[in-house]
Target: MFS transporter
Amino acid sequence: SVFAVLLAFLFASWKAIFFATLISAVLSQFSQPSGLKLFKQHVPSDQVQAGTAMLQTITAVFMIIGPMLGAFVYQKFGITTSICVMAVAFLLSAGVLFFLPEQDQAAPSRSGLTVWQELKAGLRYVWASPLLRTLCGVYGAAGLGVGVCQPLGVFIVVERLGLPKDSLQWLLATNGVAMLVG
Model:
C-alpha cells in the first residue's frame, strides 16, 4: 500500500493518492487482527497486559513525534523523499517479521474453510446479534466521523486560525498527547 501511494504520486494525478490511501487504510485494518494474534502467540500470557500497555504507549508517543518528524522531512526534503522514507520504514517493519520465532507446527489446522467462507460466517454471526450490530454501527459512524473531520484539521489551521499549514503538526501532536494521557 505504501508503494501504491508512491506510484500514484509519481505517475498519476494527485487525486489517485486518495484511492491509494483508501487501499492503505483497508489493508491496515486487515493487519491489526493478525498483529494481535502474533502478539498473543509470541508474548507469554503473564506479560500480555504489560506488553499491551507498552504497545499503546509507543503508539501514542509516535502519534506525538510522527507529525513533527514528517513535517520536518517534508519541509526540508520534499514529498518524494517523505514517501520514500515511509516506504523504507515499511520495508524495515516487514523485515522484522523474519526475526519472529516460527509458528508451532503442532497447532491444529483450520477446518478447510476459505477466507471468504470465514468472512461470511463472521458477518452472519455479527448480524445475528443485536448488540454486535449496534456496536458495528457505532464504530462505523465514529470511523466515518473521524474520516470526515480529520481533513478539516488543515482547514481549521489555515483558514480559521490563519496559521501556516506547517502548524498542523502541532494539532496532530496534541492528539497524540491526549491519547497518551487517556
Q: What stands out?
A: Helices lie at 2-11, 16-42, 48-77, 79-96, 115-128, 130-149, 152-160, 168-181. Residues 10 and 32 are 28 Å apart (CA to CA). Residues 48-77 form the longest helix (30 residues). DSSP finds eight helices and no strands in the chain.
